[in-house]
């Protein structure tokens, strides 16, 4: 009797292995021949665009929505569809289903005529223009912002330079504040060795390959390991779909406007002025201590791009009394779009924002 | 149907990949996390930029002699096409917005729901009072 049970288990095991091997072969061929993964599928309208800037309005999906609209602010280095990666793996979809009116500030590759864009253009022109447009569309004065990585830095600078509203609540995800704790990035852009003027003056626009290479150098084995993993998981459609979407996103890094890169390097990376409260943008002081609105800071414990030590100090630096910190296991991208995001971060953002959006 | 509890050799492989990735990244980070690496990398980058600049200028002169467009010219052309595309999209959107809404689903979409939603905590408060 016991022997027969062992035999059955062995047969099941072999059958499972054969089944998956067949699936891998069939789906492997489909994988190789597949085009770009479809991403960012939630219906939306482009309601404002100017050069590198795009502002989307997603179609509401609830019968009633919260009074204050939410603007997602994407990092300037990558495409905004990471917020709307796949159905069921989309922060946009999640917020819409939970009754928010969702907008997104996204970026396109800057053209050579935009090489002179600076921190001031992003924080004193692009973001305010988008807010005005959102106010026009919604008829509401106040707005919330949910921002990611460098998008968080831009939102913080905006918040610190527009103290009388209309920003009501700010959520920052993996947002570097102490730039002297940026790990290998800090080391590689050491003021003694990096000639940022030569780089910007020669290239004008910092190429996407340069940015992508810098990210990849932080985890050189990640891409190969990802490919090996997807091969062994080829039978699993959900895994493959998610992998393809993430791979597409990772390979569609954006170039950066030269002046913006120069200023970020000088003011933030070398001067650490946002952290020290010494940053001045367009003649206005951008001191985090002046920010009094409610702020939520979402940090990834194993973030290799914006390390924990760089993102952690935000709440110590802002002058807000109403703050919340969320520290989750996971990395820079999985925090906002991985399985952890769906189960842990998004519900916390929903809870925190909903209480403050009426 | 495969037994879900069966130990797939792929799981062993996955584990090996994870360990290899961790070790390889750790080794690379140790190597690249030194002052010497940063210095050499930036020196190499400066050299490459100098070379790119000099070579680019030389090539542009040569191409001009042959009456051929340079890389800069082609990039400019590609940006012009992108700009035209952006403008066309804007015009298309404006025209669509001007056109009378003839479709029920479109009408539905344009209708914004009321901004009256309350958070769960406030709704339960109201229920408690009742």
Task: Report a brief summary of the structure.
With about 350 residues, chain A is α/β, with parallel strands linked by helices. Chain A has helices at about 1-35, 90-95, 120-140, 150-160, 185-190, 195-205, 210-220, 220-230, 235-250, 260-270, 275, 310, 315, 335, 340-355, and strands spanning about 45-50, 55-60, 70-75, 85, 90, 100-105, 145-150, 165-175, 205, 255, 280, 285, 295-300, 325-330. Chain B is mainly alpha-helical and about 130 residues long.
What does this structure look like?
- The complex is a heterodimer of chains A (358) and B (130).
- Chain A has helices at residues 2-33, 91-97, 119-138, 150-161, 184-188, 196-203, 208-218, 222-232, 237-251, 258-270, 273-276, 308-311, 314-317, 334-337, 339-355, and strands spanning 44-50, 53-58, 70-73, 84-86, 89-90, 102-107, 143-148, 167-173, 205-206, 256-257, 280-281, 284-285, 295-300, 323-328.
- Chain A has 358 residues and is α/β, with parallel strands linked by helices.
- Chain A has a single domain (44-355), classed as Alpha/Beta hydrolase fold, catalytic domain (Rossmann fold), CATH 3.40.50.1820.
- Chain A has an 8-stranded mixed beta sheet with strand order 1-2-6-3-7-8-13-14, sandwiched between helices. Chain A has a two-stranded antiparallel sheet with strand order 4-5. In chain A, strands 9-10 form a two-stranded antiparallel sheet.
- The longest helix of chain A is centred in the N-terminal third of the chain and has 32 residues, at 2-33.
- The termini of chain A are far apart.
- The mean pLDDT of chain A is 91.
- With 130 residues, chain B is mostly helical.
- Chain B has helices spanning 9-32, 35-65, 71-98, 104-110, 120-129.
- Chain B is flat.
- The model of chain B has no long low-confidence stretch (mean pLDDT 80).
